[in-house]
């Protein structure tokens, strides 16, 4: 698209610099301008005939296919090291099973629906697969890895798109170097490689949760946002002030759908949507100096509303509240003095643990350079500034709500993608600068003849060495983190953050208890549990949890007292007793001998209310012993295998 009349580097006739956008029309670089010099017009550096820049994405180079396959294999292997389903995933599985069997998204069939999940789309998909006969323990892990692989590919395409910038390439070209290779060379491969090696990314490709589905929608939305916004930077504006761009409306329409899917998968999808809206407004103001909505922007908003609004209206009508029950667990009620500060401190520590364990704390300068150190209207600056805004805001949000109780950074998974992409682009940038400095030819030599070879050879060698060093160092560190996070006996909590090893054994033991007692329950039995996941799912029991995730009364009536994410409330015994439960599993002990239970509560509170202790042997428990003690309502005959005579009290 460079005019032959004024091609850069052509001898004779002036060389026009890249034109700035017109302040009135908002025309971008490709609009071209003429200027007068000594009464003679200088031809524009670029044709002013509009040629759509928003072309189809170029195919993946053949040389990149094998490395991408190796990255995929590394991720699958890494995820298989974890291969677990956490207890919270089973909460969604209960809803999914009731959808498959009863046609209702409820935790307790026959009772008023309570929205005890925050991952509607994930729960729906798992339920549909259960109708097809696929067990959720299998489908959730296969889907998790599948979405993670899709995210890795999108991260590669996003970095390749940002570095394969015709305008940026010409703007940054130095004499003698010539045009850069498409796709930014091999640097885009670094992003999926870093994700595959990351312990957190691999852990939550397993786990059974919606983490990687949400991550995929967010990354896909970023890619659609980048592709759909490209004409805004480059193309003409028509006389009516509305920009036209070939294919842009389709990309922005897809963006609206993807953001809606993200918001239906996790509530944080609305945060992503709002932040991208802010970024778009800023880009309009700073780039085209306007706030006028283009057809594509209206199309994006319309598609979002079309997909998201009917679902939101249905869920509000069905569950009776504008927010999920888990929101009220965290936000409803008046907390005690010092609670908010303690919650914030826990959240800051959670973010710090992510930065330290993911090594983002060391990569931050490179990441920020990769995202921001670019000409303002280049692709890299446009999408890099969006990722930086999303990343900073997302980490601040995570800190504000207290982080998460699950280790290896599930709650901030989208920031993994931003960091990996920024690292790839930052190293590409820094190695380019360094290569130019180290390869400058002697003054006696002809730069045109020798500069290109110097730059390419030095940059190639430095790039190879740096990439090998970064990947090797990161791989060694993350393998050690994976081994330690799964080490048997590593069950301690780090300021309320549980290790994957603990999450795995906790879920296993509760599932074993539930399966052991499944035939012991009657249809009208009602229980109080601690974790509302594996035990109620495997036991097929009607229940609520003391934390209030699946209890409307606990979520709305109990004050938050414990500044630990997901465990902010604990229902008082008086409220639980008013529900007249048949079994109390929230006050329990798992122990090594039948006569030495150590309860996590005050047993007398339930004994005085007409309950009695039950102890049974449950084969297969791993963490604390094979004897399980809890309380049941007196007069409820329990015909269950393994029951032992309770000790006299």
From TrEMBL:
Stretch list, region Disordered: 1-39
Q: Which GO terms describe its molecular function?
A: pentosyltransferase activity
**Where is the protein localized?**
Cell membrane
Membrane topology per the entry is: Multi-pass membrane protein
Query: Biological process (GO) annotations?
Result: lipopolysaccharide biosynthetic process
Q: Does the record carry Iron-sulfur as a key word?
A: no
Alphabetic keyword roster: Cell membrane, Glycosyltransferase, Membrane, Transferase, Transmembrane, Transmembrane helix
GO CC annotation: plasma membrane
For this UniProt entry, which segments traverse the membrane? 63-80, 117-135, 142-163, 298-314, 354-374, 381-399, 411-435, 456-476
The yes or no answer to whether the keyword S-adenosyl-L-methionine is present is no
Q: What is the protein's given name?
A: Glycosyltransferase RgtA/B/C/D-like domain-containing protein
Please give the organism: Haliangium ochraceum (strain DSM 14365 / JCM 11303 / SMP-2)
Q: Taxonomic lineage per UniProt?
A: Bacteria, Pseudomonadati, Myxococcota, Polyangia, Haliangiales
């Amino acid at each position: 698209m460079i005019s032959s009349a004024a091609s850069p580097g052509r001898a004779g006739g002036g060389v026009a610099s890249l034109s700035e956008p017109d302040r009135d029309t908002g025309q971008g670089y490709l609009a071209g301008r003429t200027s007068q010099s000594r009464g003679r017009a200088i031809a524009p550096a670029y044709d002013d005939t509009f040629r759509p820049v928003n072309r189809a994405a170029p195919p993946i180079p053949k040389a990149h296919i094998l490395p991408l396959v190796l990255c995929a294999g590394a991720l699958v292997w890494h995820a298989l090291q974890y291969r677990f389903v956490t207890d919270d995933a089973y909460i969604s599985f209960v809803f999914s099973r009731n959808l498959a069997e009863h046609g209702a998204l409820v935790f307790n069939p026959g009772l008023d629906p309570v929205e005890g999940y925050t991952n509607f789309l994930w729960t729906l998909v798992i339920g549909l697969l259960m109708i097809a006969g696929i067990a959720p323990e299998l489908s959730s892990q296969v889907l998790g890895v599948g979405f993670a692989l899709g995210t890795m590919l999108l991260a590669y395409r996003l970095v390749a798109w940002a570095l394969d910038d015709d305008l940026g390439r010409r703007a940054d070209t130095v004499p003698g170097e010539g045009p850069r290779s498409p796709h930014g060379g091999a640097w885009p491969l670094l992003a999926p490689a870093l994700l595959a090696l990351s312990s957190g990314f691999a852990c939550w490709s397993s786990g059974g949760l919606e983490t990687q589905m949400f991550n995929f929608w967010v990354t896909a939305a970023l890619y659609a946002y980048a592709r759909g916004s490209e004409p805004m930077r480059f193309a003409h504006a028509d006389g009516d002030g509305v920009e036209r761009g070939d294919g842009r409306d389709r990309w922005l329409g897809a963006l609206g759908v993807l953001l809606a899917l993200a918001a239906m998968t996790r509530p944080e999808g609305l945060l992503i949507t709002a932040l991208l809206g802010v970024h778009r407004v800023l880009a309009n103001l700073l780039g085209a100096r306007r706030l006028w909505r283009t057809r594509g922007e209206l199309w994006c908003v319309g598609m979002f509303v079309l997909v998201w609004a009917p679902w939101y209206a249905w869920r509000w009508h069905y569950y009776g509240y504008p927010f999920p029950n888990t929101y009220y667990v965290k936000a409803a009620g008046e907390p005690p003095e010092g609670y908010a500060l303690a919650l914030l401190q826990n959240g800051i520590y959670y973010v710090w643990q992510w930065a330290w364990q993911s090594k983002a704390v060391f990569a931050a300068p490179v990441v920020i350079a990769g995202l921001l150190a670019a000409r303002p209207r280049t692709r890299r600056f446009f999408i890099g500034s969006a990722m930086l805004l999303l990343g900073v805001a997302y980490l601040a949000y995570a800190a504000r709500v207290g982080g998460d109780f699950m280790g290896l950074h599930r709650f901030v998974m989208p920031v993994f993608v931003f960091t990996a992409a920024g690292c790839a682009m930052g190293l590409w940038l820094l190695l380019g600068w360094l290569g130019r400095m180290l390869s400058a030819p002697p003054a006696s030599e002809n730069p045109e003849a020798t500069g290109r070879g110097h730059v390419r050879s030095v940059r190639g060698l430095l790039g190879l060495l740096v990439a090998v060093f970064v990947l090797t160092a990161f791989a060694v560190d993350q393998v050690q983190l994976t081994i330690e996070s799964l080490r048997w006996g590593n069950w301690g909590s780090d300021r309320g953050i549980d290790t994957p090893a603990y999450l795995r054994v906790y879920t296993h033991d509760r599932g074993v208890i539930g399966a052991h007692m499944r035939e012991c329950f009657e249809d009208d039995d009602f229980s109080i549990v601690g974790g509302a996941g594996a035990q109620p799912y495997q036991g097929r029991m009607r229940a609520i949890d003391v934390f209030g995730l699946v209890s409307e009364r606990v979520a709305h009536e109990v004050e938050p007292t414990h500044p630990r994410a997901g465990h902010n409330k604990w229902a008082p015994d008086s409220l639980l007793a008013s529900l007249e439960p048949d079994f109390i599993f929230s006050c329990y002990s798992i122990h090594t001998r039948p006569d030495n239970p150590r309860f996590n509560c005050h047993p007398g509170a339930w004994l005085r209310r007409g309950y009695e202790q039950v102890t049974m042997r449950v084969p297969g428990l791993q963490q604390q012993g094979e004897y399980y003690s809890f309380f049941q309502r007196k007069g409820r005959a329990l015909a269950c295998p393994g029951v032992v005579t309770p000790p006299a009290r």
